[in-house]
Design a protein that fits this description.
heterodimer; A: alpha+beta; 6-stranded mixed β-sheet; 25% strand
Chain lengths: 761, 99
């Protein structure tokens, strides 16, 4: 996979990039909305890094940025509600900078971190600043065959990123200095010509291009329990969950938590960024890279005192203390150790001094180290793909600094996979499911739209299946790869608009939302949940308009095969024929017969599990209606026409037998997450009972469904739908192939329309 | 006697590690895996006689072995890594630190 970071640094650090001298510097962060071709459609977060905007801050000679989609909802009598959703990042690795007396122009080729884009050129112009007026960058993106996209961006900062750092302290080590501070010349072992300056966490990261704000107060955690002696990664993560004020917010975000603690359970460890997968030595819980800890009782800090140091040992301890804080925060920015990036000679906060000295001689690290990250790391921090830098984004050790995982070359990480939404959010897209799925059990999720506005109805396209193109679902697999669920079929249809009313006035809970079940087991690239382990899901709702809403991140665990027999069955199950049967909700096609038979056998064999129940429902679904196919015929020998023939009759009796234990099992599970599945399977059975003229039994099953869903707290509109369903049974008569649910939904829409008209009057 | 602290550092991935000091078995551990967040897999403290000691390091799961000598007096620190298919070591008078 191509990475823009592979491009060599043209102008590594320091010095003006152009011979022509001008009085004004342009580097820093800019932000502005699209002005053409569509005003206000997008927002650009722009980072220009071509001259020195801050003392001792190396120049990386890069321009980069992030695109956000803007959602603007007009509210009568109020200012518009604005939210923004991250879309993608890009970088220009070797910009051409031309300086004139009155302006600076920058051009270069844009490389997007993810996805496929036409060749795109960046052109930007910054005019000389006027007193009291923020600098403006006029930015154009010119793509082959497309209209230029124009942005006017105002300068916001001379830093490229912002970070909020919250620090808490354990009572046992709550004594000065809590935070590190050194004078670069405190220790005699240092590079010749070191610029004398005070370095803190804020100042060091400021030189790296990140504006760090540390909360002024620190919570104190009483760690005096007599049986407690050292921290584990799991305990650190647990304390972060309880103490980090931002933990409950929407992630990823530019926030980090640090804990000053006593001792780690491996006493040689002076600090750890514990929030990474267990395989790397972390606590193994997503989202990652939110927090780290520093261990004050480590021997590195035996001589640590407040400034100024009285001797070399104290100066070394203070320097090591600063190093450890910056190093761990660096891990949370998704930086790896230098040697893990094939740069063992790097003079960086991310190298180990003793490792460097082993290669270059005693004290060689501190004799040459200029208190900074190396160039590649600075490029990552300032200009890396937002998802791989921001806390809670890509998992640690993935993204900008790692080679792609095996197989990723044809499964490019899609843009916006980990996007977040900021601002006044009009709509919620929620993913939920029962969370745990047995091995091979079809994975179905509920997608729910909910109007969050206090007093404005939203008319939305409610086709939530990815087949319609309005919803995109990203799946992070257990191996860390993020892939986009690709449906087998793409459906072109008119939008299915539905009004979601605000939860106020005379609307009731349920009128504000719409749910749909989406089965994700199988798609264009095969089975998506074929390995045991943890999966993370996130969806993006685009609907039919310009609204772009990301969902929550939903965690799913797929269990391991419980028996050897089940493991062996997987060989037959993970096949094209079974996958297509799952996707098509059962098929009697001759070409998929093998899969049909595998599923039928499994549904009987595992009838006491949800795997069996769901397979039974899928197989049964294909029996609810006759199946037609073309057969060769002699009727039209000259034209070679073929005849559409009924190859299989519907078999309602078989459906009822096949789903009897399935419906019983789902009922007994009594899980709200199975409500949609329960409704569907009862719908199937009612359809068959009506066609067998067993209306009384049909009503009885609907009544049972009503009662069960009422007990699990279903909302009134859902219960009303079920009542309407029962009424349909009475009017359905003996007509076969009655699509009862569709009639119920049509009625629902009529009621909504009437309500809407009444509200408008 | 001296104390030798052995840190198994980079390049271990579910490996078995055997250490012999002057021909005597001193340390054996299975499923040794480097924690990339720290650059450390496992540590052990071994009592060794003062003076020149011969240490034989074996990683049978990668079919690797190396024999080294070091002068022991007081506290010694030995870092062992697997790099490019070879066992490499660092000897230090100071403990290694990890972050």
């Amino acid at each position: 996979m191509h990475s823009p970071l592979n491009v060599p640094v043209a102008n590594p650090s320091g010095g003006n990039p152009s011979p022509a001298s001008v009085e004004f510097m342009v580097s820093g962060r800019y932000e502005g909305e699209m002005s053409a071709p569509t005003t206000g459609l997008d927002l650009l977060d722009l980072r220009i890094d071509v001259d020195r905007s801050y003392a001792n801050s190396p120049i990386m000679n890069r321009v980069s940025g992030d695109f956000y989609q803007l959602n603007k909802i007009t509210v009568p009598g109020s200012p518009p509600l604005v939210s923004r959703v991250f879309r993608e990042s890009w970088i220009v690795s070797a910009p051409e900078v031309t300086r004139h007396a009155d302006q600076v122009t920058i051009t270069g080729s844009v490389e997007f971190w993810k996805g496929i884009h036409p060749p795109t050129t960046l052109q930007l112009v910054i005019k000389s600043p006027e007193a009291g007026v923020a600098q403006i960058a006029e930015v154009s993106f010119i793509s082959d065959g497309g209209q230029p996209a124009l942005y006017n961006c105002l300068r916001k900062s001379d830093a490229f990123r912002d970070l909020d750092l919250e620090i808490d302290v354990c009572g046992s080590v709550n004594h000065a200095p809590v935070l590190p501070e050194i004078l670069t010349t405190d220790h005699p072992v240092r590079p010749g010509g070191t610029a004398q300056r005070v370095l803190t966490i804020e100042e060091s990261y400021r030189e790296a291009g990140v504006l760090v704000s540390i909360a002024p107060t620190h919570d104190v955690i009483d760690d005096s329990h007599p049986q407690f002696d050292a921290w584990s990664a799991a305990e650190l993560h647990d304390v972060m969950e309880k103490n980090f004020s931002r933990i409950g917010g929407v992630w990823p975000q530019w926030s980090m938590w640090g804990l000053l603690a006593g001792t780690y359970n491996e006493p040689l460890v002076g600090g750890i960024m514990f929030d990474a997968a267990a395989a790397f030595g972390g606590a193994g819980s997503a989202p990652e890279r939110q927090g780290f800890a520093i261990f004050r009782e480590h021997q590195w800090f035996d001589f640590l005192t407040t400034r100024p140091p009285a001797n070399k040992d104290q100066a070394a301890a203070a320097r090591q203390y600063l190093y450890t804080w910056l190093h761990e925060a660096g891990h949370a920015f998704n930086l790896l150790h230098s040697w893990n990036k094939n740069r063992p000679d790097a003079l960086s906060w991310m190298n180990y001094a003793w490792k460097y000295d082993n290669l270059h001689g005693t004290d060689s690290f501190w004799s040459n180290f200029n208190f900074r990250f190396d160039d590649e790391e600075l490029i990552h921090l300032r200009h890396g793909d937002r998802a791989s830098v921001i806390m809670g984004g890509d998992p640690w050790a993935s993204g900008g600094h790692m080679e792609a995982p095996p197989g990723a070359e044809y499964l490019a990480v899609p843009p916006s996979a980990l996007s977040t939404i900021d601002g006044d959010v009009p709509l919620e897209l929620l993913i939920r499911s029962k969370g745990y799925f047995e091995f091979m059990e079809p994975v179905a999720i509920e997608l729910r739209l909910r109007n969050l506005l206090p007093n404005l109805p939203l008319n939305l396209d409610t086709r939530l299946s990815p087949e319609y193109g309005g919803v995109v679902i990203h799946i992070r697999r257990p191996d860390g790869r993020i892939i986009e669920y690709a449906p087998i079929m793409c459906k072109l249809a008119i939008p299915d608009y539905r009004t979601l009313y605000p939860l106020s006035g005379d609307s009731e809970r349920g009128d504000d939302r719409y749910s749909e079940e989406v089965v994700l087991s199988y798609g264009r690239y095969g089975f998506y949940f074929d390995e045991p382990g943890e999966y993370l899901l996130r969806a993006l709702y685009q609907g039919a308009g310009d609204l772009l809403i990301p969902s929550n991140v939903h965690r799913i665990r797929v269990g391991t095969p419980l028996t050897r027999d089940l493991d062996i069955t997987a060989q037959d199950y993970f096949s094209y024929e079974v996958g297509m049967n799952l996707y098509l909700e059962g098929s009697r096609s001759e070409y998929l017969r093998k899969g049909f038979n595998v599923m039928k056998d499994m549904s009987e064999k595992y009838s006491d599990s949800l795997l069996g129940a769901k397979l039974a429902a899928t197989v049964a679904n294909s029996l609810t209606k006759p199946f037609f196919s073309v057969e060769p015929t002699d009727a039209y020998p000259e034209t070679r026409e073929k005849l559409l023939t009924k190859t299989h009759d519907a078999d309602p009796q078989a459906v009822l037998e096949m789903t009897a234990s399935a419906v019983d099992l789902i009922r007994k599970r009594n899980e709200k997450a199975l409500n949609l599945s329960y409704r569907q399977i009862v719908g199937q059975r009612v359809h068959c009972l009506v066609s067998l003229e067993r209306n009384e039994d049909a009503r009885s099953e609907i009544n049972q469904l009503y009662e069960d869903l009422q007990n699990t707290g279903a909302n009134p509109p859902v219960l009303r739908q079920i009542r309407a369903f029962a009424d349909e049974v009475d009017t359905a008569g003996t007509t076969r192939a009655q699509k009862l649910w569709e009639r119920v939904r049509a009625q629902d829409r009529k009621v909504e329309k009437t309500q809407k008209q009444q509200r408008n009057q | 006697m001296s104390t030798l602290r052995v840190d198994l550092q980079e390049g271990f991935n579910g490996d078995e590690v055997d250490l012999r000091v002057n021909g005597q078995e001193a340390f054996q551990k299975g499923d040794v895996t480097t924690k990339q967040l720290l650059g450390l897999a496992s540590s052990a403290e071994i009592e060794v006689p003062n003076g020149t000691v011969t240490i034989e390091i074996k990683v049978p799961t990668q079919n690797l072995a190396k024999t080294i000598s070091l002068e022991a007096s007081g506290s010694e620190y030995l870092g062992v890594s697997i790099t490019n298919g070879k066992i490499e070591h660092i000897v230090s008078r100071e403990p290694f630190g990890y972050a």
